Amino acid sequence: MSNPVETVEKIAPHATSAVYKTMAMNLGPQHPATHGTLRFKLEIAGEVVVKCDPEIGFLHTGFEKLGEYRNYNQFVVISDRANYLSPLNNNIGFAVACEELFDVKVPPRGQYVRVIMAELSRIADHIISVGLQGMDLGAFTTMLWSFIEREKLYDIFEAVTGARLTTSWTRIGGIFKDVPKDFPEIVRGFIEKFPDMLGEIEYMLSRNRIFMDRTIGVGKLTREQAIAYGVSGPVLRATGVAYDVRRARPYLCYNDFDFKIPVRFEGDVYARYLVRLAEMKESVKIIKQALDKLPGGPVSALDHKVTLPTKDMVYHDMESLIHHFKIMMPGHGVIPPKGEVYSCTETPNGELGFYLVSDGTGLPYRVRIRPPSFYQLQTFPIQSEGKMFSDAVAVLSSLNVIAGELDR
Amino acid sequence: MSETPQTPALPGQADKSGSGGYITTKIEELVNWGRRNALWPMPFGTACCAIEMMATLSSRYDLARFGAEVIRFSPRQSDLMIVSGRISIKMMPVLIEIYNQMPEPKWCISMGACASSGGVFDTYTLIQGVDQFIPVDVYIPGCPPRPESLIDAVMLIRERIKRGERQTKLYDRTKHPLDFQPVNLVSDAVAGAPQLTGTRLSLPGKDAAQNG
Amino acid sequence: MALDFKELEKKLRETFGASVLDWTEFRGQPCLHVKRESIVKVLTFLRDDAKFEMFTDLTCVDTLRLPDEMQPKYAERFTVVYHITSLEHGARLRIKTYVPEDPAEVDTVSSVYLGANWAEREAFDMFGVNFKGHRDLRRILMPENYEGHPLRKDYPLKGRGERDNFPKYTEIPEA
Description:
The complex is a heterotrimer of chains A (408), B (212) and C (175). Chain A is of the alpha+beta class. Chain A has two domains: 4-55, no CATH class; 63-103 and 106-300 and 337-407, Cytochrome-c3 Hydrogenase, chain B. Chain A has helices at 4-11, 63-67, 72-80, 87-102, 108-136, 140-161, 183-205, 209-215, 223-228, 234-237, 245-248, 269-293, 311-316, 318-328, 372-377, 380-384, 389-399, 403-407, and strands spanning 23-27, 39-45, 48-55, 170-171, 174-175, 339-347, 350-358, 364-370. In chain A, helix 4 (87-102) runs antiparallel to helix 5 (108-136) and helix 5 (108-136) runs antiparallel to helix 12 (269-293). The longest helix of chain A is centred in the N-terminal third of the chain and has 29 residues, at 108-136. Chain B has six helices and four strands; from the N terminus they run αβαβαβαβαα. The A-C interface holds A 56-57, 60, 62, 64-66, 68-69, 100-101, 103, 225, 227-231, 241, 243, 248-249, 338-342, 344, 351, 353, 355, 357, 359-360, 365-366, 368, 370, 374-375, 378, 407-408 and C 26-27, 29, 31, 53-57, 59, 61-62, 65-67, 69-70, 81, 83, 87, 90, 92, 94, 113-115, 117-119, 122, 126, 139-143, 150-151, 155, 157.
């Protein structure tokens, strides 16, 4: 870790003189650069940030407390409100954690459909993250362009889940409903045209003089720092660590696909931008393979102690009616065994973990969300201290902090 | 030269027959016409609804069609507050402060279930409806509302402006304690002024009853 | 290279003796139970010798309402749970330590893992567990003047009236 005071002496020697005092400055909690609700108490000397103290918690909603009063399927609704840029990844992350606790296996079709949706959601998150990164550095056009793509993805999400943003799509042991019949066509229609659009955004930013000047060498994080701070996702992979949960602890059917983990070694803002671009291309590859291999069959596990039987079965079969009743009635519900599980998935921002403690009742005893943003924002002071103030904005937009999961 | 040269009629000068050049109106209506066609929103976006608000402002839905695209992050330059997202007890003083910084006349949209009523989050930290503490003109249901709903709300605000209505008239801002004090949660309240924000109310014996 | 957890358990028991309380496993996830006095030593050992260099998570569980058969054998109110990862072995380990209600104190590990800094602040905020030796232990999510620790089991879900304690608007009667 660099000593900020020494760095300030180098960059702005006037700042350390007795006459020139540092100034306290407040960034946020309502500020366009924070993309939400963060606050930074900065001490600046001229344009140089001497000290930075992030203050979070402005969007603290009590997800973890509420989780103790809601049953496992109800918590899916809460999980997608934790991350509003890629809610599907959160749904799937929570469902995967629950399935590990319940020891349920999702049928192949369910896994493939989940993978496709997770990767589409990853594209939706990265594209808006890249667009906002451009916007924060003055390129407003990229944000509008990326929103065009995001709207196309919203249409797919709406066709599949019924909602644009807060999808609440997964259930324990599967998905509440199979995808529509034309699902492969609409997804193919998107991913065929998407690389061209991505190329245009890349053409706008990647060799853009202003963008490069403001991002290359800014917010450098070393490999050791990133690991010690528990950073994950594109920010970690930009420092040269090829850690991706999809490969390190494969969940769903990620082992079936051939994809690369993009890694850069610079560790700066520009490297994160490039990693995000490359990841979107890898996601397109995964979706293509998954669509080619998409199997038939049910999307949810047939263990009706956990998943709901179909309406048809409920109407015609006594057994199924009882299962339906037991799952739906308060006091019964889906009962996991006693125990505890930590399960993680790779969301666009990094490793999203759920630590579930079950006491053998229908309600979880403790739900802990391990948010990626929380551990990434923790490195913000060491990335911005001793640097110019305008660099702090670039660093912040590259971390893609989502206040919902940061504060929970 | 018997013919006098015909000068073209200037607006408001020639042509007293009334066939053109004049618009007679009340000054209030003229001002309201200007106001409703150039709303400058102050996006108080905190959570999911803020993303839908961004979608509304972006390419496909394009709120600029209704003259409300000039997003101002400075409350001093805006006249429509869009509260979109969950408001926690840590954020509420900020919201009140920013609302009070906006110049009159001002309007407020409470976007989404969380801002209007707390939504699904009936927890210790979430404000159960911002309308308890700031006046709200239009509520939008939905979690989050679709961009069309937000556009509809802006149209309703335009209607209200046209009719010269606003919610703030009903309230006495001078009695609002936060108008006179900086929002400082830690400082002791000035003598006589109401206690500020967010501290625990003493409810002895009620803790156990509330539990669950 | 997969890590042999049996080997690791043996090594830990040899090195720390009675400080290692237990070693359990559920759904293939190993869990190490240690005494709170030696948590810093154990974590330093795991970081340096067993190559668990990546910090994943720190959280806390209030065992107040846990059913009797699930109560930890060591009968303390709070369980502090650490998750650490080894990139080299691709392995993850859960470490648990037990903290009594009074004094709810445990040594900080923010010197061992830098990432534990904010996580410990959050556990302090939400559960009221003090992390001895932490440089900057103050509330992180709740406002500074907040009373109580909301994630404790005896704290009501709907709070104690904080969310309604803001100045209300006063309506002018229409003239």
